[in-house]
Design a protein that fits this description.
The chain is an alpha/beta fold. It is about 40% helix and about 15% strand. Strand 1, helix 1 and strand 2 form a beta-alpha-beta unit. The longest helix is centred in the C-terminal third of the chain and has 17 residues. The mean pLDDT is about 95.
Length: about 325
């Protein structure tokens, strides 16, 4: 797997929100991004059955078919997000997982999925049932590896125990939001993943754009930005603490001779617990900057200096 993963959540929509279907990248725009990603050495493509109401998987599938690159791409997709209001249209029950994998395989035009993930936890379904359903897909050859997204450390640890106890395939991967603004929240999960040899993919590495500097204090966000189109996951960063941290981070990036985007991604890539960093570029310039950032290795001392700068800014508010 490449260190940078191409997030396809913007293909045909903006994530899984039905109100935003059709407001993401067109198929031609998605094709340009996938072409550039592959040419840049990115072989890890990430999508989900809910992105764009299935359009994302369809676009990826047609691109793979047209380019003849299925064997070269490490393909990941997800299941579990509610696709409607009727029973069994979401969650991580055996019925939903087994049904949806067939739809994803069809849309992706492939016989197998390299990494099949639970899109989020499902407190209403026992881990034994979910892991058993995933295990059956691995045994059937439809899925190579299984994982989970947006999962707490305690639940991931329990899943390891459940899998071992019942002789089931473990979650091979965890994908959580991890960036300089959520660095304290993921410390236990990254430690657990490293200890248990679970791949850790960091999503939202730029905190929805906050770490690029485009939401600096003093003005409203661009109407086409993620904070405007899909504010839910990132609105809570709109506070005095984030504002102070962004001023400090801008200074740290300047002193390092990097853009804020480059430093934010380099900080993640240089974390030994991180396997891959998932980016969701809107155009090739975003993608190129992420690839460049992945080549900017930071030693542990440099990583600590960035964290200290942000922590000092936060303490200055007291």
């Amino acid at each position: 797997m490449s260190v940078i993963a191409l997030g396809c959540g913007g293909f045909g929509g903006v994530g899984s929100e039905a109100a935003l279907f059709g407001k993401g990248e067109t198929e031609d725009e998605a094709g340009v991004l996938m072409d550039r990603a592959y040419e840049s050495g990115i072989n890890y493509f990430d999508t989900a059955n809910a992105y764009g109401g299935g359009l994302s998987e369809e676009m990826v599938g047609r691109w793979l078919d047209r380019r003849g690159l299925r064997q070269q791409i490490f393909l990941a997709t997800k299941v579990g997000t509610a696709l409607g209001t009727a029973p069994n249209q979401g969650g991580l029950s055996r019925r939903h997982i087994v049904d949806e994998v067939e739809h994803s395989l069809r849309r992706l035009r492939t016989d197998w999925i390299d990494l099949y993930m639970a899109h989020q936890v499902d407190p209403d379904t026992a881990l034994e049932d979910t892991l058993s359903a995933f295990d059956s897909l691995v045994v059937a050859g439809k899925v190579r590896y299984v994982g989970i997204c947006n999962c707490e450390a305690w639940r991931l640890g329990k899943a390891c125990w459940v899998a071992d106890r019942h002789g089931l395939h473990r979650f091979d991967s965890v994908q959580n939001q991890y960036n300089l603004l959520t660095r304290h929240l993921q410390s236990e999960c990254t430690a657990l993943a490293a200890d248990q040899q679970i791949a850790f993919t960091a999503h939202s590495p730029l905190a929805g754009g906050w770490l690029t500097g485009k939401y600096m204090p003093g003005g409203p966000p661009d109407p086409k930005s993620r904070l405007s189109l899909r504010p839910g996951p990132y609105e809570h960063f709109r506070n005095r603490r984030t504002a102070a941290e962004m001023v400090a981070f801008k200074t740290a990036a300047s002193e390092a001779g990097m853009t804020m985007t480059t430093l934010a991604i380099a900080w993640l890539v240089s974390d030994p617990a991180v396997t891959s960093v998932l980016i969701g570029p809107r155009h090739t310039g975003h993608l190129d900057e992420a690839v460049t950032a992945a080549e900017q290795a930071l030693d542990e001392s440099a990583r600590r200096e960035v964290v200290h700068a942000l922590d000092d800014a936060e303490r200055g508010l007291d």
